[in-house]
């Protein structure tokens, strides 16, 4: 058992007032009790949370872990999406097993150390000759650090020769994609509501797969009861591409291929019109909102306020670390809150709404039940932040909101996933951090040497 004692505040859920001077008891992988002055069970690990805020673990709903290896490259620091992709594909096509494993470790570490306890990853590049099971590598790496993980089996089938963007060497035939998609579901997917391993099927985008693969992927996912994902309406260029190539706007294209519904989530979704937002609301389709990436690439501002007002489930996402360029999920929550205020005014997104987007909405999007709150019988996924520090002086009136409005070091003191401490006193438990930095850096250099960067 774990007894978290004397927390300055505990945020049980986005809709509840934080509980002051509170304790949390964890038994096995579940929250057993939340209250004040709780007795310490015999043999329990005690975490003194005086001067700390305890919040539900954050949920990341769109990422590209391998992109942690191509951050901040000068050639694409000011590029638009399509130009950015074309340049980077010629580097990413040289990834190997070490690239996949160490980038997954690196991204998982950043996520856990900034309060994220559950994440997906959209890996859609399958370079010819890689000679490794990419999904197995990713699950192994995430398991090593203790991240609750729901990655996608992404896919691309249309290369440059077919009018797409990626090079021929990173795409697969549709038969290969569908066969391997079924394999990874059977091998890795655990349908338990609080599973540590789930699988999502995720054709990359309308400009990198055919309509047939979209439709067949959706059918296969529904056969096995897994979620479905793709990029959609991220830029005006994408909308124009869909109209030119398919004679339809992106949402109609998705509707025609059975790619809408409560089991579907789209990344970005910036350029939906009002009728399309109504259609997304009616079908229960989810949106993974990526504010920093959208700003970094100059793509635009997602209409989160209008989406939430229509009842669309909007969740928080980082997008790739080559377009963010970090995996700081608490920082991303702050960006989401502030970016809506740029276009919608000072109440465009409240701190309460931001916490919901970053926790419960993400769990709902990924299909996890009883995750996203600190509540009896719910998953013991928690993040503990030290607010007894310089940037939080003067924030005591609302220490939970202070994590969004104030502060600059978004690292946790403790992160707990599935009842296990995975970050302790600010340090990873599952791996020595110096070793991680050294070996991941070596793998980056090796990738760059192969790519001639």
Defining traits:
453 residues; alpha/beta; Urease, subunit C, domain 1; TIM Barrel; nine-stranded mixed sheet; seven-stranded parallel sheet; 15 helices; 20% strand; globular
Topology, element by element:
Blueprint: E1 2-10, E2 19-27, E3 30-35, E4 45-48, E5 52-56, E6 58-60, E7 63-64, H1 81-92, H2 97-113, E8 116-119, E9 122-123, H3 134-145, E10 148-149, E11 152-155, H4 174-188, E12 200-203, H5 211-224, E13 227-232, H6 236-246, H7 250-256, E14 264-268, H8 274-283, E15 286-289, H9 291-296, H10 304-310, E16 314-316, E17 319-320, H11 329-344, H12 351-358, H13 360-366, E18 382-386, H14 399-405, E19 414-417, E20 420-424, E21 427-428, H15 433-451
Parallel strand pairs: 1-4, 1-5, 6-8, 7-17, 8-10, 9-11, 11-12, 12-13, 13-14, 14-15, 15-16
Antiparallel strand pairs: 1-2, 2-3, 5-18, 18-19, 19-20, 20-21
Helix pairs in contact: 2-3, 2-15, 4-5, 11-12
Structural Rg: 21 Å
* CATH 4th-level superfamily of the largest domain: Metal-dependent hydrolases
Annotation, overall tally of beta strands:
21
Q: What is the residue-mean pLDDT, rounded to a whole number?
A: 96
Query: Considering DSSP H and I runs of 4 or more, what fraction of the residues is helical?
Result: 25-40%
What structural category characterises the helix and strand content?
alpha/beta
Major beta sheet summary: 9 strands, mixed
Structure description:
By secondary structure, the protein is α/β, with parallel strands linked by helices. It has 2 domains: 2-56 and 372-426, Urease, subunit C, domain 1, CATH 2.30.40.10; 58-366, Metal-dependent hydrolases (TIM Barrel, Alpha-Beta Barrel). The chain has helices spanning 81-92, 97-113, 134-145, 174-188, 211-224, 236-246, 250-256, 274-283, 291-296, 304-310, 329-344, 351-358, 360-366, 399-405, 433-451; strands spanning 2-10, 19-27, 30-35, 45-48, 52-56, 58-60, 63-64, 116-119, 122-123, 148-149, 152-155, 200-203, 227-232, 264-268, 286-289, 314-316, 319-320, 382-386, 414-417, 420-424, 427-428. The strands form 4 sheets. Strands 1, 2, 3, 4, 5, 18, 19, 20 and 21 form a 9-stranded mixed sheet that branches. Strands 9-11-12-13-14-15-16 form a 7-stranded parallel sheet, with helices on both faces. α2 packs across α15. 54% of the residues are buried.
């Amino acid at each position: 058992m774990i007894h978290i004692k004397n927390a300055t505040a505990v945020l049980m859920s986005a809709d509840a007032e934080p509980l002051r001077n509170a304790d949390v008891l964890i038994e096995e992988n579940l929250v057993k009790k939340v209250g004040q002055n709780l007795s310490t069970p015999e043999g329990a690990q005690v975490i003194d949370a005086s001067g700390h805020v305890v919040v539900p673990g954050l949920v990341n709903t769109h990422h590209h872990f391998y992109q942690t290896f191509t951050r901040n490259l000068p050639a694409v620091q000011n590029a638009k999406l399509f130009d950015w992709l074309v340049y980077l594909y010629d580097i990413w096509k040289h990834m190997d097993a070490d690239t996949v494993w160490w980038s997954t470790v690196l991204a998982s570490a950043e996520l856990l150390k900034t309060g994220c306890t559950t994440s997906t990853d959209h890996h859609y590049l399958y370079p010819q000759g890689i000679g490794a099971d990419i999904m197995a590598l990713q699950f192994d790496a995430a398991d090593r650090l203790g991240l609750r993980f729901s990655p996608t089996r992404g896919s691309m089938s249309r290369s440059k020769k077919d009018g797409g963007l990626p090079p021929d060497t990173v795409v697969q035939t549709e038969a290969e994609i569908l066969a391997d998609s079924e394999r990874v579901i059977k091998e890795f997917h655990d349908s338990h509501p609080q599973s540590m391993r789930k699988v999502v099927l995720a054709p990359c985008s309308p400009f990198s797969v055919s309509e047939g693969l979209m439709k067949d992927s959706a059918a296969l996912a529904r056969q096995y009861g897994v979620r479905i994902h793709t990029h959609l309406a991220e830029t005006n260029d994408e909308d124009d591409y869909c109209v030119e190539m398919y004679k339809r706007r992106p949402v109609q294209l998705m509707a025609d291929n059975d790619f809408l519904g409560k089991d579907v989530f789209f990344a970005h979704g910036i350029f939906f019109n009002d009728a399309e937002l109504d259609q997304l609301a009616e079908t229960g389709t989810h949106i993974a909102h990526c504010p920093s990436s959208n700003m970094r690439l100059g793509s635009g501002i997602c209409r989160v306020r209008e989406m939430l007002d229509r009842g669309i489930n909007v969740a928080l996402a980082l997008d790739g670390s080559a377009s963010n360029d970090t995996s700081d999920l608490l920082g991303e929550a702050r960006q989401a809150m502030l970016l809506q205020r740029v276009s919608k005014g000072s109440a465009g997104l409240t701190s309460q709404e931001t916490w919901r987007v970053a926790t419960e909405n993400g769990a709902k999007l990924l299909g996890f039940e009883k995750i996203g709150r600190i509540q009896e019988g719910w998953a013991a996924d928690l993040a503990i932040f030290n607010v007894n520090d310089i940037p939080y002086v003067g924030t005591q009136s609302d220490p939970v909101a202070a994590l969004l409005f104030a502060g600059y070091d978004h690292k946790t003191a403790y992160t707990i996933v599935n009842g296990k401490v995975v970050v302790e006193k600010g340090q990873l438990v599952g791996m020595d951090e110096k070793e991680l930095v050294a070996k991941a850096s070596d793998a980056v250099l090796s990738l760059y040497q192969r790519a001639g960067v």
